[in-house]
Amino acid sequence: MSSTPLSPRLEVQNLRRVFDGQAVVEDVSFSIPAGQVTCLLGPSGCGKSTTLRLIAGVDRPDAGRICVDGMPICDETSYVPPERRAIGLMFQDFALFPHLSVAENVAFGLKGGGANTRARVGELLEKVHLSRHAQSYPHALSGGEQQRVALARALAPRPRILLMDEPFSGLDERLRDGIRDETLGLLKDEGTAVLLVTHEPHEAMRMADEILLMRAGRIVQRGAPYNLYNAPVDRAAAAFFSDINVLKGRVRGALTPTPFGDFLTPGHPDGTEIDIVIRPQHLKIDFDRAGRGPNPTAQDGTPARGIVERARFLGRESLVEFRMEVDGSVLRASVPNVFLPKPGTPMWLMIRRDRCFVFPATGRA
Ligand SMILES: Nc1ncnc2c1ncn2[C@@H]1O[C@H](COP(=O)(O)OP(=O)(O)OP(=O)(O)O)[C@@H](O)[C@H]1O
């Protein structure tokens, strides 16, 4: 990877959009260099599509600035209409023209019908493995094939930026990962700057170079998928990416006591309620030996005993639910492969302390 910083192809600064007196996009800023896929990730209604529409130019912001290759396309003094923004769009319903063949759909945004157009259409159809369907009509294609035509059509005019709004959500779940990977390959090949909107963390993790995590109109965290997963900014950010367990405690002298021993919680005044968050795969399980469990370790702290309530096999892993003896709370542990202890079995749990996140409590149980 090059060490020189890439100049942004798309730059969005302090974007704001208000509907009915309510800001649905607030102070949104980010930039995307060529060849990078950025995912705007967040729950339904958090303002993702509105942000996309502002960048596409089909809606206008109440404040902020949008630049493409350093040139403003939308700010207080300039407004470039959508068709002159060199921005490609791809939506979840693909919106193919039913009366045009696959090749005609792909050629739609290209000027003229000469040899260059034919070459570009041919090149893209080859890349999306649809050359043999060039003369077919959309209704004769599968959902996955239609998605690939839509992608080829969006990329045909070599847009500087491609905006994708939930582009895989209309597809059969079993096909999605394969199509995501193929799409990613093509996007990287074309070197476009991509902003992909999704509410699915799995999709963002699989596709993104950078994730922008959005909540209630604002970007609450940004970074590589690894960083968002491993260093969430708060409890809700942790919970967005997987099931979580929460140990509740109260700070006493920079420590928070829990059933798993004391946690260092510096920087929080005495009496602060703390949530210690841990993902199910970072709980360790050990057997009960006549009422005794494993010895405490520096890494895992003190073990605590729980009773199996339920165990389910989920395919790649098993999820075991424990009722903790000390306080009756429920903790979930995920274990690779098949591990289905009987309900009522006592077992000992330990938690990987290096994988815990400590946050001030948010008030939820
Ligand atoms: N034209 C509009 N007029 C009034 N309110 C709007 C308008 N467009 C969007 N909203 C509101 O703005 C908020 C954000 O909507 P938006 O579609 O951007 O969310 P989203 O994160 O894309 O959600 P989803 O994933 O469900 O599409 C919602 O509360 C929505 O009702």
From TrEMBL:
CDD domains from the UniProt entry: ABC_Carb_Solutes_like
GO-annotated molecular function: ABC-type ferric iron transporter activity; ATP binding; ATP hydrolysis activity
BP-aspect Gene Ontology terms: quaternary ammonium group transport
One CC-aspect GO term: ATP-binding cassette (ABC) transporter complex
Record flagged with keyword Lipid metabolism: no
Pfam families: ABC_tran (PF00005), TOBE_2 (PF08402)
InterPro entries: AAA+_ATPase, ABC_SmlMolc_Importer, ABC_transporter-like_ATP-bd, ABC_transporter-like_CS, ABC_transpr_FbpC, Mo/tungstate-bd_C_term_dom, P-loop_NTPase, Transp-assoc_OB_typ2
SUPFAM superfamilies with a match to the protein in the record: MOP-like, P-loop containing nucleoside triphosphate hydrolases
Protein's recorded name: ABC transporter-like protein
Alphabetical UniProt keywords: ATP-binding, Cell inner membrane, Cell membrane, Ion transport, Iron, Iron transport, Membrane, Nucleotide-binding, Translocase, Transport
Superkingdom field: Bacteria
Domain ABC transporter: 10-241
